[in-house]
Amino acid sequence: MAFRSKVRSLTLQGNRLFSSSILSPDSKTPLSSKEKSRAALSLLRFEKNPERILDICRAAALNPESHLDRVAYSKAVSKLKESHYYEGIRGFIKDSLTRPDFKSQRFVSHFIVLYGQAGLVKDAINLFDEMPNMGVPNNVKAMNSWFYESGSANSAHSILAEMERKSIKPNAETFSIVIAGFYKEEKFSDVEKMMHLMKKYGMRPGISIYNVKIQSLCKLKKSSEAKALLDEILSKGMKPNCVSYGHLIYGFCREGKLDVAKSLFKEMVDKKLKPEADCYFTLVYYLCQGRDFEAALGICKECMAKGWVPNITTMKSLVDGLVSIEKIDDAKEIIGIVKEKFTRNADKWIEIEEGLPK
Predict the structure, then answer these.
(1) Where are the PPR repeats (predicted)?
(2) Which domain holds residue 249?
(3) Are 83 and 48 in contact (CB under 8 A)?
């Protein structure tokens, strides 16, 4: 027993020394888990040698429980893919799966995602098939997580076919993810194929699907097409929500069509829908960019009455704009509210206030 204890102690000591020498060669004290993760991410940004990339990951003892470590996993796989080191990716994931604490649906789903990210579709499907043997359920939730983080719709058709073969019925979330992916890649005919496929499964597109379509079109600066979808929703007797309007307002603001954005905002409020904070922030920012400072002031006051204040850059832009149209008292009022809300920047705002025309 004493011998085993000694061996375990030496092994742990060796692991710590290995971690320190790779992640922080100048450090004389052991790194915490978070410090290891940050050091690994920093090194992975510039490292090109595939074996060295794997050494960095091993030294950091990455754990998908941590957001930082999930980012590091993804970064490592992307780097290894660039080097076409697919065997290294397979070995890296298989080594991770040997850890007993990683045998959960959430963690295994993450490794399926990594296979998908690397373009190793067959490996991803094989791991999905192996999940029951590992004591982990494989279902539509596990398959959706793959779609979520892979960032590409290239394999969507084959994955959906695989789901059908395994009698796993895709749900609305599955289609939302896939449709967003096809829009991102501007594969509009594939979007329509997904809409038809939904009908095949007896699914009626709900507001969540329409919101994905609206958001995707707005991101592509096709806000007029997105607005047509809103009209379609209304014609079908469906009720758009604040998310629907928020996406449209952002889209039209980005395209400089501020009158349309303001009209949509009024329509939303008239329908008794409550705008979210980001919707207010977006409007105030773009109205200032468009030099419509009076409208920006009105929206900003509504926003602040709810306890939400746009960031300092937007607020400075609004204050400067109000001064430029000689609304000094309004500018002072805005500064007073911001000083109270963001006390750490109070000195800066006092300086701005003192510089206002008397």
Answers:
(1) 171-205, 206-240, 241-275
(2) 222-275
(3) yes
